[in-house]
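ARCHIVE CARD
CATEGORY: sequence design from structure
SOURCE FIELD: tokenized fold
FIELD CONTENT:
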């Protein structure tokens, strides 16, 4: 889930096209095709 909160504890979506409380194709695409390779590259020291 891609969820961010403001300092008052309210939900603030970082990307307006993605509803953070519902499953969507766009959220899946970001999580598995974009963020996962980026995290793995950071762990391997390639950034």
């Amino acid at each position: 889930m891609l969820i961010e909160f403001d300092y008052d504890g309210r939900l603030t979506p970082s990307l307006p096209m993605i509803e953070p409380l519902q499953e969507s194709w766009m959220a899946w695409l970001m999580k598995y095709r974009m963020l996962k390779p980026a995290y793995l590259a950071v762990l391997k020291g390639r950034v």
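CARD ANNOTATION: Helices lie at 25-43. The chain has a mean pLDDT of 78.
SHELF: design records, drawer C
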